[in-house]
Amino acid sequence: MAPRGGAGRRRHRPRLRGVLLAHHEPAGLGGLRVGAAGRLRRWVPPRAARPAGGPAAHLPGPARRGVPGCRADRYRPGAGPVTGDRPSAADPVTVDVVVVGSGLAGLAAATDLVAAGRRVQVVEALDRVGGRTVSHHRYGQALDAGGAYVGTRHTRVRDLAARFGLTLTPTAAAGATLVDLGAGPLRSDGTRPAFNALAVGDLLDRLDDLAATVPPADPGAAPGAAGWDRLTVAAWAARTLTHPDARLLLDLLVRQMLAADPAEVGLLHLLFYLASGGGTHYLTAFAGGAQQDRFTGGAQSLADRMAAALPRPVRLGTPVTDLYPDQSGTGTGRGLVRVVGPGLVVRCAQVVVAVPPGPATRIRLRLPGVSPPPGPPRTRGAAVKLHLVYERPFWTDAGLSGWVTAGTGPLRYVVDDSAGRDGLGVLVGFVTGPDARQYAALSAAARRAAVLDRLAGWFGPAARTPLALLDRDWQAEPTVEGCYAAVPEPGWWTTEGPPWSPAAPDRPVTTVGPVHWAGTERSPLFYGHLEGAVRSGQEAARRILAAGPPAPRRDAR
Ligand SMILES: Cc1cc2nc3c(=O)[nH]c(=O)nc-3n(C[C@H](O)[C@H](O)[C@H](O)COP(=O)(O)OP(=O)(O)OC[C@H]3O[C@@H](n4cnc5c(N)ncnc54)[C@H](O)[C@@H]3O)c2cc1C
Description:
- InterPro entries: Amino_oxidase, FAD/NAD-bd_sf, Flavin_amine_oxidase, Flavin_MAO.
- Helix content is 26%, strand content 19%.
- By secondary structure, the protein is of the alpha/beta class.
- A hairpin with a 6-residue loop joins strand 19 and strand 20.
């Protein structure tokens, strides 16, 4: 084994401590920071152009350089126990399982495999763990720039949180919410816009009734699947919903839940998502619903703790590029896989590829009989998440909860993530779908003006002077490609999906030979949620363990 902290070791340096956004933001959407004088400073360098060729050419420059955000010293970017500066190493390190990706799916798989005695190496493209969970700490408060909320039914995430000593904070909002459908804000006592109650009830019942006919494990088997898959949600609404309030609410729901335009989403995908996640009421509810709690110390703390508990440090800053059959082994060394990336060669019996569907297609599979990974190949989800930090939650003075639902962009949703009424005020905003694409194209000044003008219109002039305004564009993440989760093109489910069916030989499966695909997009339950990610990782580990103990390796180290 290569010595830890050898010549190639790059120590983690918290060079951007206190800075929210990372280097992989695109040109035109860097991190924004409001200075003491209230002026907004741009501090994130624009995205570098992609150089041609090179071992990691499939990732943009900043991703190869590594993205800061890792806080634990035991992660060793670009070095560590795996060794090697020798992609052709004749005698690379051998483990039982390599897990590609250190999001919650990969870490859940690694945690279970290690608990069962397997030697596991996690390899991560970025210089931090957590994937779509990223927490930043400002003014003593954790700000979740990615996945944040944990629902009452998200039992696997809750179990892991308890196991790793983490606490959850309820997100319940008190006070009136605002609804702005274009003619200025209206107060509402519920969390949903005060629409025509009959139209709303009818819409939600219809959606839930249709979703109840969609088996999450095989959406294509639903009686109406063929027609629903190619029909967009927008087309279905125009055809079926007569009340304008029902159409408007459906539009808002799709933008909120899927971060996509209803004209881009197939009806079957929406119904599957509802069936997978627990239905309209559960998915849109905070108290008692899918947004019941958030991690007190930030959602990334779960990934940080899971990674820190692994015997082998996560190998950071190393995008896996290829899976090769191992040619060097003899006897018991035969049948192994070589997992290769820049400066990385590791040999293993099994591989868990716990990366989102888009990036997964860029890992070259050179193993005989292993087909390209299944999964929605293209995604239409697009999200920018913002945090505005204020000296206090001043909106509560007016009896407001901090919640806003807007019919026009850029900010479609605002929620209150303040720790309490006596501390700092934290508003979280979401820009989704086509709004996110337009927002990302604006200059920094124009983005700031657009956000603060909107908030001032809802909460008054005090909204114009945040201590900090931070935004993160998930469209630009080369290791994710679309958020919150992959939204397949209309027609995908009945032609190529689902991405997990183990039974049907003519369909893609999540395990082919020694390769197991995981990630929230491989989970029939709670697809797109933290819970789906954990379940998929645990399922990959279960399949590996069910296959029996690893063969003894005379070359094992
Ligand atoms: C803005 C936003 C808000 C969200 N809000 C919520 C919420 O409130 N509640 C909720 O339940 N869910 C939410 N989600 C969704 C949730 O965050 C994801 O479902 C979940 O984190 C996905 O975990 P994963 O492990 O499947 O994938 P990821 O977290 O994407 O992890 C994949 C990892 O693989 C790495 N990787 C990619 N390619 C390679 C490679 N070639 N080699 C090595 N490593 C590679 C990536 O860098 C990444 O670390 C949100 C997501 C976003 C973006």
